[in-house]
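User: I've been trying to design a sequence by hand for this structure and keep getting stuck. Would you show me what you'd pick, starting by listing the structure so we're on the same page?

Assistant: Good idea, let's start from the same input. This is the structure you sent:
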């Protein structure tokens, strides 16, 4: 009888980022600029790596696929957030909420594996240079990419298994601008202690372990370069520091969200914006400005495009 008096929740109300018109206008301009920049920057990297034969190497193959992932990732929550900024009622259906969660965790899990693969690629290039092309063959790169997507999809499906069958009887208000599991399970009409533990163990623990393993591997690589080739350390440091920066930008918000799940705060929302829009924008910026070959290849493509237009 008690359950019969409760109606199943078919949609969720998002509180968004702010009720102030001035702040909303600033966030609208900020989000539009960085969202378009994220799309443009990552698309430029994909086109550059695909069209320039000099960049047809394992490292750039992985980098191009990282940009493809960022193209998808920045389009999961940002477009709806931008459209919702000036709406009085910010609503998302139950199906739309589950879809956001599925794609964010599938793409996030894939990117996590890809970052590990990029660390492995640098390990082989630095520690086993004579066997680099044999180990990181085209077949190996394709297998790594397939494994990354399979693991990402499995991770996402496991996460959804925790929430898709939960009963939501009200309230239906999410203090966020997008759907994610830590906020969603708080609305379930059940004891969420075990659910929070499972989410922390699945996403939080995996993120934390992967982060520390990656940082330790890059420290090991820097130490190896310094020991065997002191003159090469500056170039290696430049390359690896870009990788380390991307790892910190990617894993930092994840660890904050999933290792220490807490009531929503302004810090959560700031990190959510950073994760949804800024990180996909910073990835191409960091790799482009820290990589001489990428800058030369992009300049060559733009020169070719300008020459083609002039010829027309």
């Amino acid at each position: 009888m008690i359950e019969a008096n409760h109606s199943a929740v078919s949609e969720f109300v998002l509180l968004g980022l702010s009720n102030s018109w001035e702040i909303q206008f600033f966030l609208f301009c900020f989000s539009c600029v960085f969202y378009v920049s994220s799309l443009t920057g990552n698309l430029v990297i994909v086109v550059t790596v695909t069209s320039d034969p000099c960049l047809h190497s394992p490292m750039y193959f992985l980098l191009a696929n990282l940009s493809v992932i960022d193209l998808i990732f920045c389009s999961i929550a940002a477009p709806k957030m931008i459209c919702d900024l000036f709406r009085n009622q910010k609503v998302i259906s139950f199906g739309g909420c589950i879809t956001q969660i599925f794609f964010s965790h599938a793409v996030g899990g894939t990117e996590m594996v890809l970052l590990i693969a990029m660390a492995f690629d640098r390990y082989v290039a630095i520690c086993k240079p004579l066997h680099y092309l044999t180990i990181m063959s085209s077949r190996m790169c394709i297998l790594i990419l397939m494994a990354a997507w399979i693991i990402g999809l499995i991770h996402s499906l496991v996460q959804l298994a925790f929430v898709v069958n939960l009963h939501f009887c009200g309230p239906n208000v999410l203090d966020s601008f997008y759907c994610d599991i830590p906020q969603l399970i708080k609305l379930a009409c059940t004891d969420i202690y075990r659910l929070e533990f499972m989410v922390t163990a699945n996403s939080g623990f995996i993120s934390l372990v992967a982060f520390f393993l990656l940082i330790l591997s890059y420290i090991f690589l820097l130490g190896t370069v310094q020991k065997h080739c002191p003159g090469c350390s500056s170039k290696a440091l430049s390359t690896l520091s870009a990788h380390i920066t991307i790892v910190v930008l990617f894993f930092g918000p994840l660890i904050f969200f999933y290792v220490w799940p807490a009531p929503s705060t302004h810090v959560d929302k700031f990190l959510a914006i950073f994760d949804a829009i800024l990180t996909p924008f910073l990835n191409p910026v960091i790799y482009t400005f820290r990589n001489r070959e990428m800058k030369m290849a992009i300049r060559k493509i733009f020169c070719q495009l300008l020459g083609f237009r002039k010829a027309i």
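That's my pick for every position. To get oriented when you compare it with your attempt: The first helix runs from residue 21 to 51. The two ends are 75 Å apart (CA to CA).
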